[in-house]
Write a structure and sequence with these properties.
This protein is α+β, with helices and mostly antiparallel strands. It has two domains: 193 residues, Fructose-1,6-Bisphosphatase, Chain A, domain 1; 133 residues, 3-Layer(aba) Sandwich (D-Maltodextrin-Binding Protein, domain 2), CATH 3.40.190. The chain has eight helices and 15 strands. The strands form three sheets. Strands 4-3-5-6-7-8-9-10 form an eight-stranded mixed sheet, sandwiched between helices. It binds 1,6-di-O-phosphono-beta-D-fructofuranose and magnesium ion (2 copies). The site of 1,6-di-O-phosphono-beta-D-fructofuranose has 12 residues, from strand 5.
């Protein structure tokens, strides 16, 4: 009985209402960032709908082309890319988009638009055809003022600490949008029956320490010694520190990070022989997810330094990542440092 009355009295807040309420706290705000977030929300609803019925609409499988990273492009990758770009183009606020699926910058109709958007339109492509969670990731920067108005790629090369907002949409057992504008992390669940994202969590906090580690162990032989030691540390029994930890690896960064945000622990994609600079992309995978995790109280480093302070040198650059609960990230860094020092003596 009590739960019925609680359900009755709980006011549902939609993504649009939440964004407007947040904007009203800043009297000088123009509303453009709010509009941009709503545009992404709209594209996400369309992508979510198509993901859910991809098996009957010919959207599964490969497109036949290869992207700038040499990876085979899936039809849903392209569909998501097109939906997000056209949603951003419609509202004339964004001047350029940098997407995993496009080699260079994509100039939008609004050359004077204030924002630059990076995106991974569909993260976890290898999971598309097997019905495992995938997502869209976005990262928003302000365009830097320049005398010469012509937009160039360099305008987009800003460190992650300059992000004004970032987030992701996870197409899982439900569709969830999570974002931050630097004032905490909020999440919204899509109610497909009314087509609205509804607030589910305000001010997410990651646990200080977690007992889940997440890494593709296939490349174990080429890891740094410090990383091998850390994974061994995770596997050793110790009641006091709740070890051995549990291993979980979905293979969609966005889904692995969502679990890490909720349950704590660590996600690692290190450098290896196959990927000497790591596999994941700084600007549209690592920076936005680092912003979210840091806003929730976590940490994200490349093994040595904070990811968000890295000055990018190219729009598609890769970087190793160690991200999650602060205690877990500090522990792996301690072991990486120890072993690096040993190797250099
Ligand atoms: O198969 P691997 O090497 O473990 O790589 C998995 C990683 O690759 C990615 O799928 C790369 O992203 P895309 O699917 O957007 O290219 C990440 O989501 C994931 O964490
Ligand atoms: Mg990706
Ligand atoms: Mg992708």
């Amino acid at each position: 009985m009590e739960s019925t009355s609680t359900a009755k009295s709980r006011k549902l807040v939609t993504l649009d209402e939440y964004i407007i309420q947040a904007q009203n706290k800043f009297p000088g705000a123009t509303g453009e960032l709010s509009q941009l977030l709503r545009d992404i929300g709209l594209a996400a609803k369309i992508i979510s709908r198509e993901v859910n019925k991809a098996g009957i609409t010919n959207l599964l499988g490969v497109d036949g082309s290869t992207n700038v990273h040499g990876e085979s492009v899936k039809r849903l990758d392209l569909f998501a890319d097109q939906q997000l770009i056209s949603a951003l183009d419609r509202s004339m606020i964004t001047c350029m988009v940098i997407s995993e699926e496009n080699d260079g910058i994509v100039r939008l109709n609004s050359e004077g638009g204030k924002y630059i958007v990076y995106m991974d339109p569909l993260d976890g492509s290898s999971n598309i055809d097997v019905n495992v969670s995938i997502g869209s990731i976005f990262s928003i920067y302000m365009r830097q003022p320049r005398f010469d108005k012509k937009l160039v790629e360099d305008d987009a090369l800003q460190p992650g600490i300059r992000q004004v907002a970032a987030g992701y949409v996870l197409y899982g057992s439900s569709t969830i949008m999570v974002y931050t504008t630097g004032l905490g992390v909020s999440s919204f669940t899509l109610d497909p029956s009314i087509g609205e994202f509804i607030l589910s969590e305000d001010d997410f906090k990651i646990p200080e320490c977690g007992n889940i580690y997440s890494i593709n162990e296939g490349s174990y032989n080429s890891w740094a010694d410090g990383l091998k030691k850390y994974i061994k540390y995770c596997q050793v029994e110790d009641e006091e520190t709740n070890r051995p930890y549990t291993a979980r690896y979905i293979g969609s960064m966005v889904a692995d990070l969502h679990r890490t945000l909720i349950k704590g622990g660590i996600f690692i994609y290190p450098a290896s022989t196959r990927y000497p600079n790591g596999k994941l992309r700084l600007m549209y995978e690592c920076n936005p997810l680092s912003f979210i995790i840091e806003q929730a109280g976590g940490m994200a480093i490349d093994g040595k330094k904070r990811i968000m302070e890295k000055q990018p040198t190219s729009i598609h650059q890769r970087i190793p990542i160690y991200i999650g609960s602060p205690d877990n990230v500090k522990k792996v860094k301690e072991l990486l440092d120890q072993h690096e020092n040993k190797e250099s003596v």
